[in-house]
Amino acid sequence: MQDRFRADVLANTNNRIILDRWNALALPDGWLVAGCLFQTVWNLQAGRAPEGNIKDYDLFYFDKDDLSEHGERQVQAHVDEVLADLGISIDVSNQARVHLWYESYFGHPYQALRSACDGIDRFLMPATCVGIRPDSVYAPNGLQMLYDGVLTTNPLTPYLDLFEQKAASYCARWPSLRIARTSRAEV
């Protein structure tokens, strides 16, 4: 299933170009993550253009030696320069510093992370916990729920208010998705 996921993700031209320029991005523990991946899969399943309705492209990295907002902005500026010709919105986030701002932004506590993959593990829905880089795919919950369109809460981030907002937004754009109000183990 990882081969299918990689092929689907690469059907999105922006994802393919980002991964082609990976070395130039030079992100420590870097991953292309989130909506640009799982929404590409859902677009393909819905018969839409792979790039359709994707708001932004998220890149995670992990730099515990620079937890400053300034450092993260410098990395964002570098990424923006490398990918400027794509004409897409790109968000870069140092997962080593998410715990410093998450609660004030989302209203819920967030523990300090040890790697970029820890951040992927904590997406609101297990089906969307995916990341890719040129040499690997990271999907800690597997890929079946993603391809089945099953949205359920993540026990690592059990914030029902945030889950319901995001799930409603996804279901409005991809009506074939379904919300399962059970734990991942029960799905």
Essential attributes:
187 residues, alpha/beta, five-stranded mixed sheet, 9 helices, disordered C terminus
In words, what does this structure look like?
This protein is α/β, with parallel strands linked by helices and 187 residues long. The protein has helices spanning 2-10, 13-20, 22-25, 35-45, 69-82, 98-106, 116-121, 144-148, 160-173, and strands spanning 31-33, 57-61, 90-94, 131-133, 136-138, 150-151, 178-179. The strands form 2 sheets. A 5-stranded mixed β-sheet has the order 3-2-1-4-5. Strands 6-7 form a two-stranded parallel ribbon.
- Count every beta strand, where a strand is a DSSP E run of 2 or more residues: 7
Spatial strand sequence of the major β-sheet:
3-2-1-4-5
| Count of separate DSSP helical elements | 9
Shape verdict:
globular
Succession of helices and strands: HHHEHEHEHHEEHEHE
Radius of gyration: 16 Å
Helix content, binned percent: 40-55%
Largest sheet: 5 strands, mixed
What structural category characterises the helix and strand content? alpha/beta
Q: Can you give the mean pLDDT?
A: 95
Quote the distance from N terminus to C terminus.
Answer: 19 Å
Low-confidence stretches: 183-187
Into which percentage range does the β-strand content fall? 5-15%
